[in-house]
Write a structure and sequence with these properties.
Elements lengths: L4 E8 L9 H13 L3 E8 L9 E2 L5 H17 L16 H29 L4 E5 L9 H9 L3 E5 L29 E4 L5 H6 L5 E3 L18 E6 L7 H14 L5 E4 L11 E4 L6 H6 L1 E6 L3 H4 L7 H8 L4 E3 L16 E2 L3 H13 L1 H18 L2 H12 L10
Parallel strand pairs: 1-2, 1-4, 2-3, 4-5, 5-6, 6-7, 8-9, 8-11, 9-10, 11-12, 12-13
């Protein structure tokens, strides 16, 4: 039986860009390899990165992408900030956004069309193309062209729903995906959010399905590390979650100065109280950093926390690492973990501090809760399972010689 062959167009493969989805894509692509897939990855931003689990194709617009990123960073510095910020609710499309999109359509989109044509003609037997969080509007016309010329499905995988939807507009580091886009060009739109599927259909998707995030349980596993932090949180900034950062970090750290709070990551604009900031945590040390904390926080952005079953990577990675997890309320979290048994959910600062004190006073209880959470990941939430689900949705059978 021939191994399924997929061409993945990725927003980025280089972890240095600190795109939130990229580490998860690495784990999912490894899961596809373990499910027997021959995978080719070509990046939209940055250079291709080889790995044992996929082959690569180049980025045909590398210099254009880096030049644009440099220009955006320069404009942000002129405004006295690190990023060009957008409003958190229904951000309007600026004149610069529109001009950028027009330029991309004239210069970048045609080059990507030629590039994908060359790769598909060279490979000859690719079963499907999956576009991973590349701004949808930038590939206008390409999915229909590929489907017509090569007769294979083209899938858009949006790992940022609902934050990527027009009413939220995505992170300040990227684009608003759906401005100027036509989701109906794709045979399938895959989302990390079950509650976001009706909105994707409303935006024009012909078919929308959910595949939740998960974790690679070999990489994210308990490590024999000395505990150096009482309460730890790592994330890419605090946009859409400043209220809960204040509730779970700012207020408790002031109320209990004897506890050691630590934050990994950057761009925390709100109230972090007395928490110590550690800066970026390299991804290859993330599992160790989790194990160095007695309690790990899952602080989900408002966009995800309020739309039912909108998964993020963090709870799965923390759970796979055997962490004692304390979370803010997240609609649908019981779909993945049992509150009170596999993690704790708190409603306010007093409950948060009470949970911290309880877990710190009884490390055996904390360890047992983390162990139960890891078992849940092993049973239901590995990326091999997610990869198999994705293949089924795309209509491609996994190889009989799967590497598991």
């Amino acid at each position: 039986m021939k191994a399924p062959k997929l061409l993945a167009v990725a927003s980025a493969v280089d972890l240095d860009f600190r795109y939130g989805c990229t580490p998860a894509w690495w784990q999912l692509w490894k899961g596809l390899y373990e499910a027997g897939v021959d995978l080719i990855v070509t990046p939209y931003r940055g250079r291709p990165v080889e790995s044992p689990w996929w082959r690569t194709a180049p980025n045909p617009t590398y210099y254009e992408g880096e030049s644009f990123a440099t220009a955006r960073a320069g404009l942000a510095r002129l405004k006295g900030d690190r990023y060009l910020r957008r409003a958190e609710d229904w951000p309007e499309e600026s004149a610069l956004d529109k001009a950028t999109r027009e330029t991309i359509w004239r210069w970048v989109t045609p080059r990507w069309k030629r590039h994908l044509t060359n790769v598909l003609e060279r490979e000859r037997d690719v079963d499907a193309v999956i576009v991973f969080t590349v701004p949808m509007a930038h590939f206008r016309g390409i999915p229909a062209y590929v489907h017509e010329r090569f007769g294979i499905p083209v899938v858009f995988y949006d790992g940022d729903v609902p934050m990527s939807l027009p009413e939220f507009g995505g992170m300040d580091t990227g684009f608003n995906y759906y401005h100027g886009a036509d989701p109906s060009e794709y045979d399938l739109v895959v989302s990390n959010s079950e509650g976001g599927l009706p909105r994707l259909l409303e935006l024009g998707a012909r078919r929308a399905e959910a595949v939740f995030w998960g974790a690679d349980a070999e990489f994210f596993a308990p490590r024999p590390e000395e505990k150096v932090h009482d309460v730890f949180f790592y994330g890419y900034g605090d946009k859409f979650r400043r209220e809960w950062m204040a509730t779970m970090v700012g207020e408790p750290s002031r109320a209990a100065p004897e506890l050691e709070f630590a934050l990994g990551g950057r761009d925390f604009q709100g109230d972090t109280g007395g928490a110590r900031t550690l800066g970026d945590v390299p991804f290859n040390t993330f599992a160790r950093a989790i194990s160095q904390a007695r309690i790990n926080l899952n602080i989900t952005r408002r966009s995800h926390a309020t739309v039912d079953a909108s998964s993020t990577c963090r709870p799965f990675e923390l759970a796979a690492s055997g962490a004692a997890i304390v979370s803010n309320p997240h609609a649908g979290i019981e779909r993945w973990f049992e509150p009170g048994k596999e993690l704790l959910v708190v409603e306010n600062a007093d409950e948060a501090l009470s949970a911290y004190r309880e877990l710190l006073a009884d490390p055996v209880q904390a360890e047992a809760m983390g162990a139960r959470a890891r078992e849940r990941v092993l049973d239901e939430h590995t990326y091999v399972r997610r990869a198999q689900q994705l293949l089924e949705l795309v209509g491609i059978g996994a190889s009989a010689a799967a590497r598991v």
